[in-house]
Amino acid sequence: MSFSTDVKTEIARTLPERSCCASAELAGFIRASGFISLAGKKGVGLRMETEHAAVARHIKTLTRQSLGIDLSLMVGDAAMGRGKHLYGLVIKPGAKAQRLLSITGVLSEKKGDTSISAGFPPSIFRKKCCRKACLKGLFLGSGTMCAPEKAYDLELVLSNEQNAQAAKRLLNSFVDIHAKSRIRRGSHVVYINDSEQVKDVLGIIDAHSQLLKYESTRVLKEVRNKTNRLNNCDSANFDRSSSAAEEQIAKILKIRSSGELDKLPGKLIDTALLRLEHPDATLSELGALHDPGLSKSAVAARMKKILEPNTTF
Predict the structure, then answer these.
(1) What residue spans in the chain does CATH classification 3.10.28.10 cover?
(2) What b/e string do you get for 220-246 counting C-beta neighbours within 10 Å, with b at 16 or more?
(3) pTM
(4) Is a pLDDT exceeding 90 seen at residue 302?
(5) Closest Cα to residue 93, out of 45, 47, 48, 38?
(6) Is the bond preceding residue 292 a cis peptide, omega within 30 degrees?
(7) Domain 3-206, what architecture?
(8) Fewer Cβ close by (within 10 Å): the C or N end of the chain?
């Protein structure tokens, strides 16, 4: 089961407590997965689709309890196959369909004329609870979220630009959320790819169990990444130290083989001999081996003099 499915299953377990939030959630779901049909004098009908049984049950229950409208449930095979089912929630053209679409702001009436509206009605943006409910409906209808083990990415896929811009505006109405949009294969995608913002959205839509899973996975990834960075840094530092030590030893051996080692100042001879005796020691460790002890910078200064190009043999 995917992480997106786990999130949808969790938020589909809870029905909104307020009637305004019920309408707002349905408004989001219809924009994300609804298809309107026109039937002449009979008016308009509505079909909503989802591949998730829990989501279909949730929307059917929500519509019945909040509006007294019973949706017909139809089950077929999903277009992409792979054994998945497609659940269709249908209301035939007539007064009930028109009432549902009017309450959710899909249909608007001006001077006796009824028309289909894109975006969300202004009422949704007046209350934070309604904005949260609408975002839940959008995610239930068209949301996807990568598993935190793989990436930090949330998407809402909408069929037209007006609804996509409305969805982006809705997301960005929450503090610290900065959603973006793009067109992909003819669909309008509203997305967030920042780990903190994805986490915040999980909290907004009340997916608290999945939020805990997401956060624990995210922290574990960050610890592993930090450990890898430190290990890589330590490895690089070790490689540099080893290379420097090899260069120092080769130079000292060359000086000694030429008989010039004894001509160096006594303090340089001491440092040179300690380097030969302790080829794997760091400069700090070499400093501690001196009597009296030396700082790392003091040992480095001595090594620089030993390795000076103008040293003669």
Answers:
(1) 3-206
(2) eeeeeeeeeeeeeeeeeeeeeeeeebe
(3) 0.71
(4) no
(5) 45
(6) yes
(7) Roll (3.10)
(8) N
